[in-house]
Fold:
Amino acid sequence: MRGDTANDGRRRPVRRALISVYDKTGLVELATELAGAGVALVSTGSTADRIGAEGVAVTRVEDMTGFPECLDGRVKTLHPGVHAGILADVRMAAHR
Structure:
């Protein structure tokens, strides 16, 4: 799976994808393709349920953060660990 382009112009592989969607149309196909390309899937609530029900390996966000969803599922990914994972620049030692 091709990823984004680093500053040096080389592509970095996608190793993990965070998926959280309201409209589940095409979700299983997307998850299946990503997993087949070796991408680890991380997901929230009913999105994780739907992916997992199809036999695709998925890790729930709350299992990674140790923090359950709250406010009837309105707050799922607002956690420093999730945000750090999204915003980290792995080229910087302090971010690894």
User: Anything to note?
Assistant: DSSP finds four helices and three strands in the chain. The mean pLDDT is 80. Residues 27-36 form the longest helix (10 residues).
